[in-house]
């Protein structure tokens, strides 16, 4: 019978490999724990090693995409990390490991001008930091300054001034005062009342987003993304039509898919996973996104591509798959698992979302 491997039982585990695009070949588990206060490590130590590293990889990929200015992709991966870590640690949903995740999400929201989302995630990061490291004045000051910047972007000058003042006062409590950091905060403080935020070059309308009463952060963030999609569509900055994020699959469309279409879509699907090699353990997309990424030059409509992908995946899963169909056999024998759902948490209910996951070899000991 296999036994569950844990961080505690494996002091030197082999970490999950990162994509070469993330500028790091691998990460040692000890390096992750080193960033976590000692008194916060036990919930992580109790987790299965490989599962934890696979989930944490979403955070690393999110940081990579943030560095590439691909903010929606960064948010998507950070939400995956946030959600799955929350599921793995149901009694520690405010664990210290969420601080860095919140900071990345907050920065992405600021770049996308979803200021309320930035404020909400920055506040959560501050709350966690103050709870677990109340004397880490340098980090707490940093979190205060992030909130000040977010309120400054909102042009809420009173709140911005309050949090920048807190940042300055808190950093003065540290043993080694960073004078350059203080000068920067003070400069922001001096300019805060007179600063004019120029929105003329913003590619999407800045609009107020407020969390609903009792709305948890994950629900608010999901709604924020939906509204960002609508806003991008309104200003023609979305690669796909807004309707594609709301269109529901039609079974009848599958009857319009012939062998030529199946071959074209399956070839592009295989090329996609072979060339990209997937940046993380799994990726989710709708048909319009697949067309934009892998079939931009094709005249096929997203609805037809969706029907073809559905048929291909159904046949891949078919245990009686015709051995003569080499294209589908190749996909079936690849290092990936293909699936789809109409119940994705990240899209409107009923929208067909496709998923590609890397096959993971079992590490259970016999």
Automatic annotation (TrEMBL):
Superkingdom of source: Eukaryota
Biased composition annotated in UniProt, kind: Polar residues: 1-11
Positions of the UniProt region annotated as Disordered: 1-21
Classification via InterPro entries: TPR-like_helical_dom_sf
Name of protein: Uncharacterized protein
Natural source organism: Adineta steineri
